[in-house]
Amino acid sequence: MIPPVLDLAAARALDRVVFADVRYYLDGRRGRDAYDGGHLPGAIFVDVDADLAAHGAPPTEGRHPLPDPGAFAARMAQLGLADQDRVVAYDDSGGVMAARLVWMLRATGHEAALLDGGLAAYPGDLDTEPPSRTPAVFSVRPWPADRLATIDEAADRRNTVLDARAPERFRGDSEPIDPRAGHIPGARNVPCRDHVDANGRFKSVEVVRGNFVGIEPGTDVISYCGSGVTACHNLLAMEYAGLGAGRLYPGSWSAYSNTDRPAATA
Asked: Where are the alpha helices (DSSP H) in the chain?
């Protein structure tokens, strides 16, 4: 398996590399519009809502529940991704959105990594036309149970549970999206954006490892966020820092806050 984070030179050196633009915004902008305005040459566009989440699920499953493995495989095949391809995904926000695709691929045994620095790491001219790719063979692989956590496991105070959201949302100072403010009782706040610098590049392994204070290699960690997207960035950052793979609670706060379970603040 390739490392979870690659710079542009290392990414370009890969055989069968496919760049994937996974820009996604919570402020009303459309990732597709950003892609159409300029993307890495040859990059495909992967939509977080349409391609990386199930549709029509009840609120108790969250805003971005994992899609059916068959539906995910079919969509990747339609985009022209093959089992043998190595995907290097990027966005313009430090990889916190692109991490969702990278985690999904790595969890199912596919070669995938984040492009360190994202879109800004590319020094050349951007393309405005999508590449011409034909449908490919992308095998259906189930989501591995050992990489996922349930709501009961996320709520169990005996487990090491990390919240990847910004501190103000973790504390419950504000909640612009989900029904209730706060966090899962017992969870610790490790904001995913703390792993990258102002240019969207990952900080040193030592600094990132320090963000996970008290966590050792092999610690069973459960990561969540608002809807299971940026939580994947924490999981990739753990791998980058040599701390193991961890587990994702896919429903995250968007699912938990739609239940009557207790919420913590401050």
From this structure: 8-12, 31-37, 48-51, 69-78, 99-107, 151-154, 167-171, 205-211, 231-240, 252-256
Give the domain ranges of the chain: 5-121, 145-256
Contact 230, 99 (CB under 8 A): yes
pLDDT of the residue at 266: 83
Answer yes or no: same fold for 5-121 and 145-256.
Answer: yes
Alpha carbon dihedral 168, 170, 175, 176, in 10-degree steps, equals 70
3-state secondary structure of 132: coil
- Distance between CA atoms of 177 and 143, rounded to whole angstroms? 27
Looking up tokens 């566009």, which residue turns up?
Answer: 45
pLDDT above 70: percentage of residues in the chain:
100
Say which CATH topology domain 5-121 has: Oxidized Rhodanese; domain 1 (3.40.250)
User: In this predicted model, what pLDDT tens digit does every residue of 234-249 receive, in sequence order?
Assistant: 999 999 999 999 999 9
- Given this model, what pLDDT does residue 164 score? 98
Biggest alpha carbon–alpha carbon distance for the chain: 51
Task: Give bridge partners of residue 19 from the DSSP assignment.
Answer: 88
Of residues 101, 225, 229, 235, which has the active-site annotation?
225
Q: What percent of the chain clears pLDDT 90, i.e. is strictly above it?
A: 99
User: In the annotation, is 232 catalytic?
Assistant: no
| pLDDT tens readout for residues 194-249 | 999 999 999 999 999 999 999 999 899 999 999 999 999 999 999 999 999 999 99
Instruction: Report the CATH number of the 145-256 domain.
Output: 3.40.250.10
- Cβ contacts of 160 within 8 Å, gap of 6 or more: 188, 215, 219, 220, 221, 222
